[in-house]
Write a structure and sequence with these properties.
- This protein has about 160 residues and is mainly alpha-helical.
- The protein has one domain (about 10-160).
- It contains seven helices and four strands.
- A hairpin with a 2-residue loop joins strand 3 and strand 4 (about 155).
- Helix 1 crosses helix 5 and helix 6 (about 115-125) runs antiparallel to helix 7.
Amino acid sequence: MKHNTDPRFVGLQRLKERQGEQLALFEEWASKNQWSNVHNNHYDWWMFPIDEPSSYGHAYTVFEGDVQKLKKDDKYVVKYLRGADLLALAWGWNLEKREYIPNPMPDQRWQNWPIRLYKASKSLKLFSFENQFESFRAYARDLMQKGKDMTYNDRDLSLLFK
């Protein structure tokens, strides 16, 4: 099983700490209906880690072995899934029901950040949370049907959702 051995990797403990800090912010903003704060914040690297490098290089990259260790931490998993729920709500989407929420606040809507939807979705798939992945996939497909672009830096992210 492959693990991230890059010297710049922050390590699983720091990844968990950053995730917890970010979730606390998500919870605060959700409680105050400050959804624009979610959209204007950077969180995807530690909230929804994936097996690809980012602008941070491999600092927050996780591989199969790392994912297995993280999934054994029940607290981490609860926070991870809560983060996915709150991100969906920020987009006006009910993750569990796979549908738009009724009467969203003005900022609870798509904000044209396909890379964030891609990373969250890819992370859910990597962590084998299929129900949540399929929900984000349904959301992405609906956005694409409505003409929303799923490219980022000339990269077609829609392939994950096909």
